[in-house]
Design a protein that fits this description.
mainly alpha, 4 helices
């Protein structure tokens, strides 16, 4: 009974997480002063924390442990965070930031695809 609630909550927070990334990336490139708004700074941390709590809860409820596909999602998450940080914190040139934005979106897409297929190397 709790599994569907956790799964749908996890999916909702994932959607909110990528949505807030896209909003902040847009602000980073076009209106950086908006990144200083307190709610825009704090909300993604709350969303991402809840996303992680739902993910950990799902692992425990399903009793799957740290399987290869879950480890792949965690590694990709680290890359996503790194690339997103470059974009949001405005590190490097505009070219570097655009490339980092694309890489963050590709990392997120990989995470979603692994979640759907339960295969870390689904593309092979």
């Amino acid at each position: 009974m709790i599994y569907p609630i956790l799964k749908h909550s996890h999916m909702m927070f994932a959607l909110l997480s990528i949505s807030f990334f896209l909003i902040r990336a847009y602000f980073s490139f076009s209106k950086p002063e908006l990144l200083k708004i307190k709610a825009i700074k704090i909300a993604p941390h709350i969303i991402d924390t809840l996303l992680l709590i739902m993910a950990i809860s799902l692992i425990f409820v399903l009793g799957v442990g740290l399987q290869t596909w879950i480890i792949a999602k965690i590694v990709a998450l680290v890359f996503y965070i790194g690339f997103a940080t470059i974009v949001i914190k405005q590190f490097g040139s505009i070219t570097i930031r655009i490339l980092a934005c694309v890489m963050a979106l590709l990392s997120f897409s990989y995470i979603v695809s692994v979640a759907i297929t339960k295969q870390a190397l689904w593309f092979i």
